[in-house]
Design a protein that fits this description.
Blueprint (H helix, E strand, L loop, with lengths): L1 E11 L2 E7 L14 H8 L4 E7 L9 E6 L1 H32 L6 H23 L1 H7 L2 E5 L1
Antiparallel strand pairs: 1-2, 1-4, 2-3, 4-5
Length: about 150
C-alpha cells in the first residue's frame, strides 16, 4: 500500500473529505535538473488533492489521518492512462501505413489518420474502463488509521 498523510476536512454521511498535499521525491533524485517531472513540481509547489473516502474509523474534521491506495491500483491506472492510448496510436499508425501500401498510396496521410484514430480509440477505451464501477472501487483510496 502507498500511504499518504491527510487532514479530514468534512463529513459526508459514511464518508469524509480529506485534503492531502502532493509529495514529490524529486529532491532525492540525481536527475532532478533535467527531469520534466521535477520542473513541473517546481512550477506547481504545494498542490493539494481533495478526496472523498469511506470512513470506517469515525474520524472528525480537523483530525490527521493516513490514507492508502494499493500499489497495483497505481500500476493499473498508469497502464490505462499512458500505455493503452500509446498502443492505440502505434497500432493505428501501423494499420494506416499498411493500408497505404495496400492501396499503393504514397505519403503518410493514412498513417497519420490511423494514428490519430488509434489514439482516440485508446483514450475512449481507458475512459470506459475507468468508468466501470468495479474498476473505480478497486482504485479508491482507503482510510487506514489516525495519526
Amino acid at each position: 500500500m502507498i500511504e499518504q498523510q491527510a487532514t479530514v476536512m468534512a463529513r459526508d454521511g459514511d464518508h469524509v473529505w480529506v485534503e492531502a498535499h502532493r509529495q514529490s521525491t524529486c529532491s532525492g533524485c540525481a536527475a532532478q535538473s533535467g527531469c520534466g517531472t521535477g520542473a513541473l513540481g517546481r512550477w506547481l509547489p504545494g498542490a493539494v488533492t481533495r478526496l472523498r473516502v469511506a470512513d470506517p474509523l469515525g474520524v472528525r474534521p480537523g483530525e490527521q489521518v493516513v490514507i492508502a491506495v494499493a500499489e497495483g491500483a497505481v500500476l493499473r491506472g498508469s497502464v490505462m492512462v499512458y500505455l493503452v492510448p500509446l498502443l492505440g496510436l502505434l497500432g493505428g499508425a501501423l494499420a494506416g501505413e499498411q493500408l497505404s501500401a495496400w492501396l499503393s498510396h504514397t505519403g503518410d496521410v493514412l498513417a497519420l489518420m490511423g494514428g490519430v484514430s488509434g489514439l482516440l480509440l485508446g483514450f475512449a477505451l481507458a475512459r470506459r474502463v475507468g468508468a466501470d464501477r468495479g474498476h473505480r472501487h478497486r482504485m479508491q483510496p482507503v482510510l487506514v488509521r489516525r495519526c
